[in-house]
Every structure is written in C-alpha cells, then in structure tokens.
Amino acid sequence: MSFRLMIKTMLRRKVVTTLLLVQLALTLALILNSMVLAKQTYERLQEPTGLDLANTLLIQIKPTTPALRLYPALGELLERQLSAIRQLPGVVAVAYTNQSPLLRGGNNGNLHKVGDEERNNVSTVPQYYASADIFQVLGVELKSGQLPQVPQSFDSDSSPPLVVTESLAQKIFGSDNPIGQVTNQGTIAAVVGDFYGQREADMGMYNTIRIAPLYGVDWGYSLLLRVEPQQVVSVRSQLDNLLRQVDSNIEIFHIRTLQEQHQRLYNTEYGLSVLLALLSALMLLVTMISGYSNAHFHVLKSQQEIGIKRALGANKVTILLELLAEGWLCTVLGGLLGVAAAVLLNQALALVISIPVLNGWLVVLTLLLLLLCVTLATWYPARIATRISPATATKTL
Amino acid sequence: MEQLQYYFKISLISIKRAPLPYLLTVLILSLGLGMFFANATFYYRLNSDPLPQKSDKLFFPMMLLVPWDCDSGCEPPPVLSYSNVQKLGSSGIPTAQAAMYSSDSYVRLDSKQQPLPVRLRLTQRDFFQLFDVPVLAGSIWPDNSARYEVVIGKQLAEKLYGTADVVGKSLLVDDRHFTISAVISPWQMLPRLYDANNGSHISDTEQLFMPLETAYDLNYMSATMSRTMDDTDYRQLSTQGRTGALHQLQFWVQLDTPAQQQAYRDFMLQLAQSEQAAGRHPVHINNQLPALRDIVRYFGRESGDVKAYALVTLLFLVVCVFNASHLSLNRYISNQYEFSLRRALGASRWQLQQQLLVDVVVLTCITLVFALLIGAASIQLMNYLWPFNSLFASWDLSLLSALLLLSLGCSYLVTLYPSLRASFGALNQQLKE
C-alpha cells in the first residue's frame, strides 16, 4: 500500500476526486459550525437561572373587561384568584407579578444611586411589581436587609421600597452596604440572590422587585406558583378551569412551567440548531452516498487491476485496506480543506448571528465522524473488491 | 416530433437499466433544491417589498427631541412622543402623514357575548392612503379629531356579524360603544413595514382601526414599544400623554418628489436648530429619515437566523449538485460504450447533445416534484420551529417559476460535464473499453 500510488490513482480521476474533496470539505465545514452552534444553545439552556424551573408554574392572564383592569376590582380579582390557587393540593406558594422572569424583554427602566448617575447608571433593569410571596415562589435567598411584607402603592407619597438582586447591588454599590441607599427608583430594603430576568436587559441577573399593587394590567399580568415536585402536572391541569370559575371575564394566554418558558427564550437559536443538525445529517448521508458510489464505481472499473494485484500476491486484507485507505486519504485531504471552509463559514455566519469561534477538539471530533461515515460507505465496495479472483488478471492478457 | 419521442424513450430506457443510481441522483438533487427552496421562500418573502410603487416615497422621520443631554453618538428614539409628532407634522410638506401605534382590545356586539381579543391600530386618517389600504364600504374619518368611530376589516366584520355590510352598525370595543364608519377589503401587507421598530413587521395586519386622539382619550397603552423619558405616567395618556416625554408613536410621511424630500430634511434641520435654541435639543443633531423599503435594516430587525440558514442551505445545494454530478458522471461513463457505438454508427455530437438535453428535461421534471415535496415538508418543520415566521411560508407563481428555473439549471449542470465527456473523446479508445 503505497501513499504515492494512492495519490496517483486519485490524480488519474481528477474530476471525481475534486468533486469528492469539495463535498467532504463543505460537509465538514457545515457539521463543525452546526456543532458549535448546538453546543452554544445547549450551554445557554444549561446556564444557571437561580430558579426552580421544573416546579414553578407561570400563568399569563388578562381581564377582558376594562372595569376589572382597575383597582379596586382588580385587587379583589387578584385576591380571589390567589386564594383559590392556594387551596389546590400541592401549591407551596403563589404570587402575582406584572411580568414573569425569563423573558426576552418587558417592563424595565434604568437604575442608579441618586447623585451618582454619571458613574454607575445601569440602563435596562427589569422591574417587577409583585405580591409579598414572590420571594418564596421564586425561591430566592435573602442576602441582606428585610423583605417588604405589605404592598405599597405607587400613588402614595413615598415610592415602595426596592429589593435588588445581588449582582445588581454589587454593580451599583460595589463593596458599600446597599441597604438604605437611595436610588432613582426608591430606597433599597433588601438584597436577594440572583435569578434570570430578561435577555435584553444589561445583564440577565439584574432585577428589581417592589411589593406593590400592579401598576397597570393593559399588557396582562402573571401568576407564579411554586408547586411540590410530584404535583406539577396535577396542579397545572386544574388551573384553567379553576381561574375561569373564579371569574370568567379573563383571557388566559398560557400556562407553562418556567422550564418551558426558559426553552422559549432561546427558541430561535434552538430552531436554527435543529435545522442545521438536520442539514448536517443530510449532508453526511449525501457524502456517504458519494463515497459509496465513488468506491463502487472505482472497484468496477479496476477489476482487472485488482485481479493482477491478487495474482501477484496481494491478499484480501491488503486489497480491503488499500481501498479503505484511499477513502481515508480523501477524507483527510477534504477535512484539511474543510477546516479552512469551516473558518470562512464561521466568519460569514458571525456577521448575521451570534456564533462562537471554532475550537480544536471539535475539529478532530468532526473529522473522526467523517472518517467513520466514509469507512462505512466504502466498506461494502471494498468487500466486493476482495472477492475479485486472481484469475481476472488473465483477462488482460 | 418523432425524434423527440425517440429521445424520451431512450432516456426512460436508460433510467430503467440502472434505476438505483438515477434514483440517488434525483434524491440528492431534490434534497438540495427542496431544502434551499424552503428557506428561500422565507428569505424572499421577508425581504419582499409590499408597496413597490411607493416604498421609496414613504419615510419615518426621527429626531433627538429628548429631555436629556447628549454630546455625540446618541441615536434618535425609534418611537416618538405625541408632542414630537405634532412638531414633525407641522411642516405642511408631505402629501400625507399619519402617526400610529398598536394596542390590544376586546370586542363584542353586546355585553352578553364573550369578548373577542383583537389587535388595534390606533392611527390617523391618512394611514389608509399612505399604505394603500383598500376600502370596501363606508368612508374613512374626515379628519384626525377624536370620534367614537372605528374602521373594521372584512374578516372581523364577518366573524362578528356574519356579513361585511356593517357600516353604521354599533360595536363594543372594551365595553365602549363605537360606530363602524368603514369596512376594508381583505388586506395583507407582508412584511408589515410600518411597524418595524419593534420587530412586529412579521405579524399579521390589524383588523380594527381607531382614531389616535380617541385612543389617547381612552388611555390605550402601546402593546409593543413604549418609553417614558421623564416623570410621565404611561397609564395617563389622556392627561399627561400629549405633553410628557412618553414615546410610543410611529410617524410616517409621504414625500413624492426629491424636492419634497429635500424640503422635509431642511425642515427637520430647522426644527432641530430652533429646538436647540429653546434648550430642548442636545448639541448634537442626528436627524434620520429612512424610507419604508430600508426600515427593517435601519432598525436592525432583519432575521439573522433566516439569513444564516440561507447561506447554509445554499452550501448544501452546492454539495448536492456536486454529488449529483458525481453520480451522473459515473452513470454516463458506464454508458460510454453505448454512446460511442451511436457515434460510430453516424450519430453526430449535436444529436447526442439533443439526447442529453432530453435527459435534462426528464431529470428536471422528476426532481421538481420531489423538491416540492421536500420543500413543503421543510417549510412545515420551519413553521414548527420558528412559528413567528409562519405568515411568510406561502408560495406564489414567481417563486415556483424560480424553482423551476433553478431545477432546470441544476439538472443541466449535473448533466453538462458527463454529457461532454461522453460525447467527446477518442472514439477508438472508447469502443475498446
């Protein structure tokens, strides 16, 4: 099995070899970038959110009549809904809030220490107006200060006290004690553990919470429930009917777990990853067909040559390895071209989507995958070649 | 004609002789075309111009009329306040102009009915002229003043009343009585470019239109983008919304001629300078006047995922064409003897090329059917994964014609080299093989 002879054989079929090399290169480029994108999406979905995703239910809801969207009728509706939900077996805690966590965008505003806007203004921070049980529902830990217990209206003389997440407090106040500090949104009453708010915020973990009546429900509001682990399905199935029994003048947009909400947050990336994975699989299939066809045709055309080799002493294993080695050589050469194509494709994709740069071990992994597929594709034609009798050589005489 | 039939017969015999390689060629080419075509459908539709006759005459003016200071690098807000619209609308230059935003509402015929959720467009009279909205019956509001009159889409009218003949009838919008002043014909502006600042251009067009002044009086909040830049309470549109820095309006002007466009730019510059002099505009002037056709790009709302997938499906198509060429080459080389024999018996190269052109037509027809099936399946998958783009999934004659041409081109490319190789070359040697 001579490397030089293999190169010569490939050069003898320049067009076919070139077509195969281009296919292998483009296949590797696509698979590599698909893997990078899939890895990024997976990592995002695995990022810590600070929330109990599986056991927290989210209901997005809106009163359908204008009267029910205004206090005091709204306050009464909320109280009736919360009490009814609390009666359900398996519900640990329930709270209303103007918006749920794990959103793309929503209600937000800037936050800075009064008198220090120039230095430490954070421009986009999600703002939650919620009932007092929100901390228990979210399962966030109190880090310092005291959590407000009674809803305080925005329309009162002083604004409601502010609860901020730990990373936001760190960003604005650094090593200073944030409790009692005055911000443009109110005085800090407590700091709680981080949880994921909005993708379009300055940072996912920056959040402010105020225990207050809902500021307005023209966009609807959320009910968040913390449920015992074994009861999620059962509680979820009862919620729609229960809320309509409490008051039928409502529109329920959706009832879902925070796990589902989290997945929806990355649905465009997830969709693209699935489509690229499908395309990569098809590309591998196409490449395998090409590899099979190339090897099969080569064997058919080289029967006499193989027969001569067999007559001159080459055993079946040698013939098998020779044909497989041709496929491997082609794959490695195509793979080398493919790495360059993958870098170019990665740069082109980075112009329109967020995609990380390629890394070394993924290149090796993809190349091994390609080698495996090409080996599988050429195995059968190579086996056929081993069955060529040395007597075939006599036909050339 | 007989000759043509003969070529078709030979082509079919050739397929029957080695069906598997042919089927693989068709399968691979169809996969490439189908996947490419599915995404091309979305790409084409998302980037299409819904108003080609006037998309270069409609403009969205934006200025830095904001209550903060900014020395450089500040972009004008993508939504305008009511008072800024008043200023930008005072020029008298545009042929037509309208401010607008969207909100959510519930409609019903009487209080006993279940309310139906409906997306509202809160706008001014010229909206219908600006975007060529076809009026089926009735008349649009005579001016921009507040009135309890709505314009309704034909589909919504039929859903509520069972008929489109509803002009003058009463309707409860959020439990307030409104009269229907006009009905618009089924109308779809895709993409809905007048609502691009928040990426809502991929949503369906509204079915209910209410005068902007009425909406402010009734405190309808924006359902898409709303920014409060001072102490204005965004719930109090009727009392604070017209004077405070509550930005939620889109504003479109129609400027038909280059002279009108230049005059409006000059007007915006003068307005910025006079606002600066009054201390209501930062030092840095950054007036923007993007046209309707550029608005999605201006707001950075182009779909990166569809673009990325378009690039990848194009690569896939290239690979499939290479692969099909490869298979086709093997098939033709296997049939080399037959070709050479026909040449030896007197067939000219042109006659062989005619045979190959017939092969191309047959390949195109079969491939087209499979490509359409694969394309339709792929569109279903894309609709499932990206439901927000589902309005853009339909095919029209121009798209299908493009697919036909593409299939023909790819089939020709796939057959070109093998056919040349089979038709040319040393006849003696070919016959010996």
Q: Whole-number average pLDDT of chain A?
A: 90
- What is the 3D form of chain B? elongated
Biggest sheet of chain B, strands in spatial order? 3-4-9-6-8-7
Number of helices of chain A: 12
How would you spell out the order of helices and strands of chain B?
A: HHEEHEEHEEHEEEHEHEHHHHHHH
The major β-sheet of chain A equals: 7 strands, mixed
* Element-by-element helix/strand order of chain A: HHEHEEHEHEEHEEEEHEHHHHH
Oligomer state equals heterodimer
Q: What Rg of chain B, in angstroms, do the CA atoms define?
A: 30 Å
Which consecutive residue ranges of chain B, at least 5 long each, have pLDDT under 50?
none
Helical amount of chain B: 40-55%
Please, could you describe this protein's structure?
In chain A, 51% of the residues lie in helices and 16% in strands. By secondary structure, chain A is α+β, with helices and mostly antiparallel strands. Chain A folds into 2 domains: 3-46 and 267-396, no CATH class; 65-248, no CATH class. In chain A, strands 3, 4, 5, 6, 7, 8 and 9 form a 7-stranded mixed beta sheet that branches. In chain A, strands 2-10-1-11 form a 4-stranded antiparallel beta sheet. The radius of gyration of chain A is 32 Å and the shape is elongated. Chain B has 14 helices and 11 strands. Chain B has helices at 2-17, 19-46, 82-88, 127-130, 154-161, 212-217, 237-241, 258-277, 295-298, 304-334, 336-344, 349-385, 397-423, 427-432, and strands spanning 58-59, 80-81, 96-108, 116-123, 135-138, 149-153, 170-173, 176-184, 208-211, 227-228, 246-254. The two termini of chain B are 34 Å apart. The model of chain B has no long low-confidence stretch (mean pLDDT 90). Chains A and B meet through helix 2, helix 9 and helix 11 of A and helix 2, strand 3, helix 10 and helix 12 of B.
